[in-house]
Amino acid sequence: MSVIRVEAQLTPGQLLEAVAQLPRSELKRFAEKVLALVPRQDRGRLSRTESSLLKKINQGVPEDLQARFDALVAKRQIGDLAAAEHDELLSLTEQLEALDAKRVGYLAELARYRRTSLPDLMTELGIKQPPYA
Fold first, then answer.
1. What is the pLDDT of residues 35-46, one digit of tens each?
2. C-beta separation of 112 from 122 below 8 A
3. pLDDT at position 37, please?
4. Cβ-based burial of 72 (10 A; exposed 0-12, middle 13-18, buried ≥19)
5. Is 4 helix (H, G, I), strand (E, B) or coil?
6. What is the reported pTM?
7. Which of 7, 39, 55, 104 has the most CB within a 10 Å radius?
8. How far is CA 72 from the centre of its chain?
9. Three-state DSSP class for 78?
10. Pairwise CA distance, residues 75 & 78, whole Å
């Protein structure tokens, strides 16, 4: 391992001059370590794309839609669901499934953007996979 003598306080230019003195093999290892620092520093910052996708992913189901769905499911469970309400429940179920599909699409897009797998991204975001998936 080479030892390079440098001043205690360095400008980026001075640091670059000092690093340029390293033998090729050590310079390569040093460069790899420097490049590994960039993602660590960027972890706290989100790009516009990530921010937009996360906003879409975290957008909940409209309260009125969820409340009506829950009410109809409760009526179905006690056997008090009229035919028209059954049709409405089917329609709401399709709407909720469409919203879920869009959300999964946004998750997949974010996973591609971050170059990770969908399951790893979901774990990172604390999103549990539904039992029926």
1. 766 665 556 688
2. no
3. 65
4. buried
5. coil
6. 0.62
7. 104
8. 33
9. coil
10. 5
Question: Are 112 and 118 spatial neighbours (Cβ–Cβ below 8 Å)?
Answer: no
The rounded distance, in Å, linking the Cα atoms of 8 and 72 is 71
Which amino acid, 89? Answer: L
Measure the CA–CA gap between 116 and 10, rounded to whole angstroms.
37
Token pair of 79, please? 């056997």
For 38, residues 6+ apart whose C-beta sits below 8 A from its C-beta are none
Give the tens place of pLDDT for each residue, 104-133. Answer: 999 999 999 999 999 999 999 998 887 765
Is the C-alpha dihedral spanning 32, 38, 41, 45 positive or negative? negative
Query: Crossing angle, helix 83-114 and helix 118-125, to 10 degrees?
Result: 100
Chain center to CA of 95: 24
For residue 91, is pLDDT > 70?
Answer: yes
* Rounded distance between C-alpha atoms, residue 34 and residue 7, angstroms: 20
Other C-beta atoms lying within 10 Å of the C-beta of residue 133: 7
Q: CA 67, 64, 106, 94 torsion: positive or negative?
A: positive
